[in-house]
Write a structure and sequence with these properties.
The structure is a single chain. The protein has 261 residues and is an alpha+beta fold. Helices cover 24% and strands 43% of the residues. The chain contains six helices and 17 strands. Helix 3 (115-125) runs antiparallel to helix 5 (159-169).
Length: 261
């Protein structure tokens, strides 16, 4: 099978999250789960016309933000795509070999974390966060605020404990972020061992959740740029905006190479 490796959500033209993109075929589930492992990526995107399916080594996901962005670098220009049972708007622009892509991730639901969910955060991170919420875009995930970038960089979460807790509470993972500074810049790390991704280089859907959460909190439109991947040596940046009309999330992408598996 021919697989295109796309660096999704570049930062200043470099880095990004390597993502496997390939044409869908009548693969078995085991074959689909094997693609990201064999390609050396966290996620794989299977395309069939305007339809996308997303896989990690653990199985299929209903959605994948940076996977959607990666697919838009490979697919012909389009205005809408389908994934996870919904049809949604997409936007792309090209400058040389860089495609800037964004999409409508759908409605985000946010609630305050329960006491049990807060205890999970404290136990897995080894520290008390500034704030904990739960945001659902597809599966729910924890949104956790810490003091600053130094605190974020120093995190060494107990991934076994987090995986078990997420499985028990039906959570995707834990998106830990700093407060935004002037201009909407911040940093984040996404830990999702329950889906086979100990730490994600770039997580667009969780960034969309954060933008929606911040917009509700502020009562105003929000634009953010979130730096991720530094702890993994793959600097990435995800951009997102939220207002009463909805949420839009994306980033810059570049096709890195094509491999045959």
């Amino acid at each position: 099978m021919e697989v295109t490796i796309v660096d999704a959500c570049l930062r200043d033209g470099a880095g990004g999250s390597p993502t496997a993109v390939l044409a869908d075929e009548p693969f078995t589930e085991d074959e689909r789960r094997a693609v990201p492992v064999r390609a050396g990526t966290s996620h794989a995107v299977f395309t069939d016309g305007d339809r996308l399916r997303f896989y990690t080594s653990e199985g299929e996901l209903p959605g994948c933000g940076h996977g959607t962005v990666a697919a838009l670098a490979v697919l012909p220009p389009a205005q809408r795509l389908r994934a996870g049972g919904r049809t949604f708007r997409v936007w792309t622009s090209r400058d040389g070999d860089v495609v800037t892509a964004s999409f409508d991730p759908g409605p985000v639901r946010v609630r305050e974390a329960t006491e049990e969910e807060r205890e999970v955060v404290t136990a897995t991170l080894g520290r008390s966060p500034l704030d904990v919420s739960v945001a659902a875009l597809g599966r729910p995930r924890l949104l956790v605020t810490v003091d600053d970038r130094a605190t974020l960089a120093a995190l060494r979460p107990d991934l076994d404990l987090l995986r078990d807790a997420c499985a028990r509470l039906d959570l995707l993972g834990c998106y830990v972020h700093t407060p935004p500074v002037t201009g909407g810049r911040l940093a984040a790390r996404m830990f999702a061992p329950a889906i086979g991704v100990p730490e994600d280089i770039a997580n667009a859907n969780s960034t969309a959740c954060l933008a929606a959460h911040l917009a509700v909190r502020s009562g105003d439109a929000v634009e953010i740029a979130v730096d991720m991947g530094d702890a993994l040596g793959h600097p990435a940046t995800v951009t997102a905006s939220a207002d009463p009309q909805g949420v839009r999330v994306g980033g810059a992408t570049r096709i890195a190479r094509t491999v045959v598996l």
